[in-house]
Design brief:
Blueprint: E1 19-20, H1 21-28, H2 32-41, E2 48-50, E3 54-57, H3 59-74, H4 79-88, H5 90-96, H6 100-116
Antiparallel strand pairs: 1-3, 2-3
Length: about 120
């Protein structure tokens, strides 16, 4: 889903279980108020809410946000069109969204494990 020219622009997702709305905003280059709006528009986006109604996003939420951003900003979909595309074929969208920096990070981790063995 993310175009190859944009893969290097977004930082890799850190190996944390939960991320705050500010951290996700930085990872996806989107402001927090936009994330809250997308929460209302896209039923698939449901961050965990804890004390004080604070939002905590998981890795799959960040990937979903990057997919939504790609549909809206790079492919020119409207909110309604992006919502329909995501509900029509969610498996294909998930398969096509492979971030090159995430792959490099995984390869580096695996090489480290191999070196230890």
């Amino acid at each position: 889903m993310l175009e190859p020219k944009n893969n290097g622009e977004l930082p890799p997702i850190p190996p944390k279980r939960y991320l705050t709305i500010g951290e996700v905003g930085e990872l996806c280059a989107v402001k927090p108020h936009v994330l809250r709006y997308w929460e209302a528009e896209f039923p698939q986006l449901k961050p965990v809410k804890r004390r004080g109604n604070r939002r905590y996003y998981q890795r799959q939420d960040v990937i979903l946000i990057r997919q939504i951003k790609s549909l809206l900003y790079e492919q020119g979909y409207t909110i309604g069109g992006a919502r329909q595309k995501m509900s029509d074929d969610p498996e294909e969208i998930a398969k096509s969204n492979v971030n090159a920096s995430e792959i490099r990070s995984l390869v580096k981790d695996l090489e480290g494990v191999i070196a230890i063995l």
